[in-house]
## 1
Amino acid sequence: MMKIIYVGESWLGSCARSLKEALARNSQVDLDEVNEDHFFPKHRAKWLRGIHRLLRQSYRQELYREILARVAVFQPDYVIVYKGYSLDANFVGQLRSLGVQTVNIYPDCSPHAHGERHRKAVGAYDLVISTKSFHPALWQSSYGYANTCAFVPQGYDPNLHLVASPPVEQLFDVLLIANWRIEYGDLMKRLAVLLERHQIKVGIGGPGWLQHRSEFPADWVFVGAMVGRSYVEWLRQGKICIAPVTREVVINGARQHGDEDTTRTYELAAAHCFFIHRRTDFVKTLYCEEKEVPMFDSPEELAAKILYYLPRSEERSYMAGRANMRAVAFYSTDSRAAEVVTVLSERLAG
């Protein structure tokens, strides 16, 4: 039995929580948890922002004390930290000095994108298990790290995203849920121009979009952030969902490898959605483009495929069903947790 203390966020829909629960279901794991977000209050009023910023170091020290207390009692084989934005390199080193193996599950495209403290912390772990297929090969040459990096992809949460039946009523022709990014905004603005004469009903959800509402057609619907079960239900309101990825990654003036997939890559299929995905080499290994998930390289190709598939409901349903079957079989967080356990077991044995 492998003993793990797991540090990560606990809100419904967070990747950290989904993987934690999958690890807890694994018969080879005895898991204790420290919920990172419980130590950092979320503010809604603007006046609280400054107060929390002043207190952030105190919050961090409370988190550190709790982790150390759990380590002292539980005596884990591993402390697994999901992303670990709140942990610095000194604290990771302190854990290692106690004889605990430290592991970071890293979900983001680049560990350089969140400041110097975080960049250094990622390099302090004994092992990084990245959800990005390109990280292991570039870990030393592009990112400058000397620690070991393994790859285990993201997945869908069977307790949240999995829906066995196809949607019945769909209010939108085209739907997107994603955090606002300039690249995504440019994609959707170009799509608006390409589709303007076709009377297509578009819905967009996710943080950041409402601030850019005026840049898009007046009849497009914007709903803000969507999490948990509401996220899944709203995804299923789209006849066609769009799955973009961030291909343009420039940090401190240096271009880095663009993203290859996101959690949407797996969640949309599990939720029985028909979706058109940004074409990447990695995604082409996950789905059949002709029979499961169509793909696009440009706004023009995306618009053409939307116009092709929108009137073909039977073809959409068939492809969504095929993608769902593939995701259910191979891409759950339980499957990913089993891969993580294999990586950790091999490390303990070695």
## 2
Amino acid sequence: MAAVVAASERWSAVARRRKRAAGRRPRQGEEPQAEPEADSEAVLRRLLEAEEDLRISDFCSSALETITECLRKQLEQLQSLTEALGRLHLGSSPGGSGEPLALSTSNVKCVCYGLGTFASCPAARIQLAFLLLFLEKCQIPRSHCWVYDPLFSQTEVSVLTSLGVTVLSENEEGKHSVQSQPTVFYMPHCGTALYNNLLWSNWSADALSRVVIIGNSFQGLEERLLARILQENYSYIAKVSDRIAGLGF
């Protein structure tokens, strides 16, 4: 089934924050204040610095190895996973063709939701830097990567375009069908509804066997929600939470 590579809770949400009063020091454990948005050149420079800092970190090395191994196994075992999933009696799906898969990451695509406003938020910048390092490590062409966040500014769209990734023009709300391509979904701390919509859009043995999600732990989501709420509002997460292959980093 879909593989989920769960990020540590240390990766925080990256929504815009209100400016603190002048002279106020951040409390212990509080995240850094958002920076004023700079021009494209300055944003690219800060992103490069974040990427270089992240590249030499133990966390990045360990996380990339975990994700790479997960993707490698996903590609190698796709056929056997598809056969096993056929016994789960999943319903019909809007995607999935059953076509054979070439074992090469050049055929893999990446979809990123909820990246955050990286021009002004350091945490979002690190998340973007990690995405770029992941694409590099797995040899996935940037032209095979699509990104979306409703908070992106024109400067951020310009920067992303210059990096070679494609900015989606419409909010898919997580309803992205993989069709016949293996797809990595990079969803750092997205809302539960987006994960549920993603599963719904790929609800077939063939489609789910081509999905890898880098995001929140489904087991963690299940533990934080009442069983009734999970079943009523996020039924697809409830159906797969005890059947997916999950790895933490």
## 3
Amino acid sequence: MLKLSTNYLVNEVIILKVLIIGNFEGGNKGDDLVLDSLITMIKKYNQNMNEFIIPGLSTEHLLYIKKICSNAKIIIPSTSRRHFALRFLSLKTIYYSFKANIIITSAGILFDRKLFNPRYSFICTLYPILLLAKTFNKKCKVLGVCVDVITTEKGFKKKVLQNTIKLHDEIILRNPNVVNFFDEINYKHYKVAADCVFGLKKPEIKKRSSNTIALNITETLVVSNAKKRNEFLYALNNYIKKNMEKYNFVFFSTNKNDTEFIKRYIKSLDFKNNGVEFEIFDATEHSFEEINVFLSQLSLLIGMRMHSLILSLLNVIPIIGIVYDKKVSGLMMQCKLENFCFEFNELNYENLDLSINEIIKNSESIKNHIYETVNKKYIKVNCEVKKIFENL
């Protein structure tokens, strides 16, 4: 009798632990979307990454993350308070950095105007975590995904920033303008792509006529020069009041604090006596899909927050960028939309009116340009992320 012997090849299930360090405490839709895009692309290109450790993740956002990766294990270590630059430096975060196979630093983490900055205290907390992880967890790989660097530091502080960067095995930059800094510090393991939120959605042109203009302004104006701030708000007020019959103005917020600032700003417009009320679309209370539906109905968006502009671009909506920070001007330059970009203290009725009229007049060609630009960014981001993650 012939005996048949059957061997079964059993594939070992490898589960990679991924520590993602970023500002995911809630209240800022841009930060939430950075995390969403990271996890979406990670799961797309490497199914073995099935345990995510996300310090400080808000409870509300956890529910959404579970929809993206329903079969993954999510661990949320508590984080220490912002004060004294201790934002991520908790014992639990350090503990998990020793256990992680991969540590990912996300877009905003290396964005730091000053090293010891009470508002963005990233570098001085990230550096010790990465240093300890690299010292005691030799197998751990540190990746920076769609990172940006804005710094005016010199001497010791610049050295800390430089050392933090060099603790990364590989970095994907979101802004080509910072390449010189990486070359200056002799860091070679970088690629240039775009903000990872561009990887969330392929652009799509929807032929729809609209007279709705969305306005996105940020509460960070309160820390700007009072005279310049008032001049900017006056120019905006003036334009709204003179064009109420021509356009439908709505407000678009990607940040909880911005929403409160917008409410105060609307009160200052004093239109209620005339029965005029302005819609505020708070993106922090809506899903990515709902945001896309809202934005697709606009004729254009005038925005200050970078991710308000990116979200509009994803929906092929023309934008006017108001620069309160270099990352906004960097985005507008990358998209070759510099003609529609203004420093917030340079905006006046005339140049705003001129830009809006030009966009309305040349809407089709501008949308075609946006589509081609954003589609390239979608492909580039996915391509670079795939290269990093698929073979880990």
## 4
Amino acid sequence: MPTGTKPLPSLLTIGGIIGSIIGGEILLDEQQAGCVVENLKRYYRLMVDNKAQQYEIYPAIASSDRVSSAAANSPEKIFRQGVLVKTTDTGEWYYIGGISPYWSRGNLIVYKGGSEATSKGKVTKGIYDDFIDKSGGLGVIPLFKKREPQVWYNPALFRDCQGGFGLFWDLLSEFQGGILAVTSHTPSLLFRIKLETESLRKLELTYEADGHYYLSAIAKNDIMRKASDDYPYIYFAFGTNPVVAKTHGLEVYPGFTFDTVTKEVQSVCHQIMTDYECSSPDFLNYIEFNDIDIGAPVYTALPCGSSCSQFGLAGLILGVSRITIKGLQLVYLRIAQPPSQFTTNHIIEWAKEMNVYDTLNVLFEAGKKFKKAVSDLSVAFPQFIATAASLYVAWVEVSYEEGLKEAEERAKELKEIYEKVVNELAGKPPSITDRYLYDEWYEFKTRVENCVREIILENPNITYEELLNQTERCAEYV
């Protein structure tokens, strides 16, 4: 929200107000705050220098490609954030982050830094509900990676002064407060929606077909994908020792902040974020927490003598709410710990701690069916059709034989519309004796084929008319 000429609120105020609950003042550790700020400056310089390591602090943006009618065009119901990770032992991909109660049976789509991944087949409403019921709002979903950069960086992980995994809050003394850096794409998402709305006059994040609501191509390509490559907005929150939260009847790993730019952020803003994020009145209208921030990553570091511990992921936002303490209105962030490492076993352990392992295990079994189906279908169909047809199936609710039959039927349909669109747009080849015309036709036909493949993989549910229209735009643009 815009700051206007009002004085900016300070996190120091939070320390005084919350500290009074336990009979003292919680002081912000200036050295700890310095550790956080210096690391954020480093990541900003990585962005300026166009280094891939900048993506260590980028959130992932997620949505199901199908949502309930109640979500329709509501960004807060459609989008969530989290982290996109590649396991260091097997190279498998996972989304760990927020789950929306408005997601319906469909493919989960995840973007980070412009790269893209999707669930291994459709995820049912029951799976999403299980995650929410058991964890409170977070989930972990194995993914099929569609696009990835040449060099991939997982989120940096927070470490204590001995280099081990520790919970940041437990490492604070009773009257010590620390800075938490929440990185979020929410302002960028909402700002891009505003720009697209002004450009198109009317923006549809979803479209209705056969009584269901599907995520639109604009929502995926022009909103989610592009916002995921914007430098994230950075909120500062005040973290305290768990005893403080317990005293006030709150979750033990809290973050307290304000629904606006804080004095602490503004004082270093141009050193840790883009000028636009710091100064644009239009952009600053969207500096406000909402449900899109569920799953957003929380980063921090600790002072260790004259140096700092490893700056990294210390938590994921589990919930966002507003509270009033002694007349002061605050944003209260409930924060869950992340996996201590990004190996398969550590992700499984995290799922057990969050009480969602049984749900994850169902997805593991579905993933095995998906992988086998792609292999079996590739014997008779091109790889991209075999993959898209396998993505079309909700493997969590069918046997392998039932799912393979459904995938085979879809593969035949996709092959048919693929050939039909290519023939429709590329047309018949000119005589090969006219080399210039033939080469020109062949180049265009290749563009069309590449576009069709990409679009089919992007949307296994696509119809002929949708494929024709999207391919036409893609081939002209490319």
